[in-house]
Amino acid sequence: MRRHSSGYDLLFFAAILATVIALAPSLAHLFELPNKMQMGRGAYFTVQRVYAGWDLFGIAIVAQFLLLLLLAIRSAGEYFVFRPVALALVLLLAAQAFFWGYTFPANSATHGWTMIPQGWRALRIQWEYSHAAGALCQLMGLCALIWALLARARAGGR
Q1: Tens digit of pLDDT for each residue in 31-83?
Q2: Could you tell me which of 92, 128, 103 has the C-alpha nearest to residue 15?
Q3: DSSP letter at 153?
Q4: Which of 5, 85, 109, 146 is the most exposed place for a label (fewest CB within 10 A)?
Q5: How many Å apart are CA 139 and CA 126, to the nearest integer?
Q6: For the stretch 29-64, what's the b/e string if a residue is b when 16 or more beta carbons lie within 10 angstroms of its beta carbon?
Q7: What was the pLDDT predicted at 5?
Q8: Into how many domains does the chain fold?
Q9: What domain range is 77 assigned to?
Q10: Phi and psi at residue 5, in whole multiples of 5°?
Q11: pTM tops 0.85
Q12: How far apart are CA 37 and CA 54, in angstroms?
């Protein structure tokens, strides 16, 4: 049976690892949110500068997408594995929709949080809560992947 191949194991491992790496900055944003929402303008814009270079996490997100896509293709014949893998992929796409629909426009309007525009508070709310929504999507995606791995293990024990 193909189910127990080491290639399949490696693919699962890589997909989970890429998801965890992509989740890390999202969780950082989520856990910082309450404190950052209390900051005044000067402190907030100063703190936002720590994210310079975080766009490199995009590499992990691209890897996550490709690995989840490969895992979905590989698990297509295993209904109870495929469904949570497909859900993880959909949740990644939802996280990206939040980013490109809300986070990125706020980044653009503030030139990467180096310029203070009119309405910066609304942009802060948009940026912080879109990151929070993306983090929750990524976290649920990781849970779905773990569920898929458990389903695969259960099926292998039959």
Answers
A1: 999 999 999 999 999 999 999 889 999 999 999 999 999 999 999 999 999 99
A2: 92
A3: H
A4: 5
A5: 20
A6: bbeeeeebeeeeeeebbeebeeeeeeeebeebbebb
A7: 81
A8: 1
A9: 2-156
A10: -70, 150
A11: yes
A12: 20
